[in-house]
Design brief:
The protein is an all-alpha fold. It has a two-stranded antiparallel sheet with strand order 1-4. A two-stranded antiparallel ribbon has the order 2-3.
């Protein structure tokens, strides 16, 4: 029996194939996608520093970027869970506006003079209630998520206009204003809220049964049901969570602007969805990360800051954001098709 020998060329080719397969595996993983987002963010920061110099790299400007990102960032955290489960919530911007209006009604502010956290609790309650209604209609009414949340978008905005009489309500609760516009360790309170919500979202998605069930429902709803998951009840929880984050964002925007108005949150739902998609969450569900969403929201806000610093046309900015979203979706489709072929 003759010995089989492997030529150096064959061994080199095999080693190269293994290395290429390993690289593709890493790039296709959540960590690999997040590394790509970090690289994109670093490139944007370099571009901003090169085009605007010290204005861009100053601590004040960096804090401003993160502070402006915090409101839509909180919305995006809740949206991440819904989209991972294969759903969508178009109402979060309107719910944000409604929660800000209800929290700043004259009667509420009068009652909150000696206990300002009441304003926060009311805003959270409004958001939570709207989310529960969305979830019940979608899960038990068997209404498509797009239509159910579109109806809530319209209804919540209209209700906010009725309550506020289409006027801007000024916040005069001193304790609330001091809290909202304060800082801790040199970092604004709103940024700390964003950090806490993102951290809580990461733990909930990656370290709890709730997160695993969310991913399972997004991957295959029927299989999740057969595995013993109460899919309908879980969907109600998910939309309630999304509504809750809208309420948090509502009180954050109220604190940042010192006002409550029905126009708060207009089109914020699109920014949140865009950040989630760019962050690597599949629109069809079954995959997504909180870290990716945070990086996605930072990428959009750094891009906005670069345009603002250089006095560039807002229309060009909108076109650029649209192009980024399209590219992200195309990349998602490519990875999804590759995964389907492997399966």
């Amino acid at each position: 029996m003759s010995d089989q020998t492997v030529s150096p060329t064959t061994a080199t080719a095999a080693s190269s194939n293994r290395a290429s397969a390993a690289i593709r595996t890493v790039l296709g993983s959540a960590a690999g996608r997040n590394i790509g987002l970090v690289i994109a963010l670093i490139i944007l920061i370099i571009v901003g520093a090169a085009s605007s110099g010290d204005r861009f790299t100053s601590v004040a400007n960096i804090l401003s970027i993160v502070r402006l990102a915090s409101v839509t960032g909180v919305l995006a955290i809740g949206m991440t869970f819904v989209i991972i489960a294969g759903g969508i919530d178009l109402s979060v911007g309107s719910v944000l506006g409604l929660s800000s209006v209800v929290a700043t009604l004259a009667a509420v502010q009068l009652a909150s003079t000696s206990f300002w956290p009441l304003m926060i609790l009311i805003a959270l309650g409004v958001g939570l209630a709207a989310g529960v209604i969305n979830g019940l209609i979608i899960a038990y009414g068997n209404v498509v998520a797009f239509m159910a949340t579109l109806a809530m978008l319209i209804a919540a905005r209209g209700f906010a206009e009725i309550l506020s009489n289409r006027t801007t309500q000024i916040v005069n609760v001193r304790g609330f204003l001091e809290f909202s516009n304060g800082n801790f360790l040199g970092i604004p309170t709103l940024v700390w809220i964003f950090i806490l919500v993102a951290a809580a979202g990461w733990i909930l998605l990656n370290r709890t049964t709730f997160g695993r069930r969310t991913v399972a429902i997004g991957g295959n709803r029927e299989a999740a049901r057969l595995a013993g998951i109460n899919v309908k009840r879980h969907l109600v929880y998910l939309y309630a969570l999304c509504g809750l984050t809208a309420g948090i964002a509502g009180i954050m925007l109220t604190g940042r602007t010192n006002t409550g108005t029905s126009t708060h949150g207009t089109l914020y739902e699109l920014d949140a969805i865009a950040a989630v998609v760019v962050g690597g969450t599949l629109l069809v569900g079954g995959r997504g990360t909180i870290v990716g969403t945070v990086l996605g929201i930072l990428i959009f806000n750094v891009l906005t800051n670069i345009f603002t610093q250089n006095n560039l046309n807002t229309s060009v900015q909108a076109i650029t954001k649209g192009a980024i979203i399209v590219i992200a979706v195309l990349i998602q489709q490519r990875f999804a098709a590759r995964g389907a072929r492997r399966s």
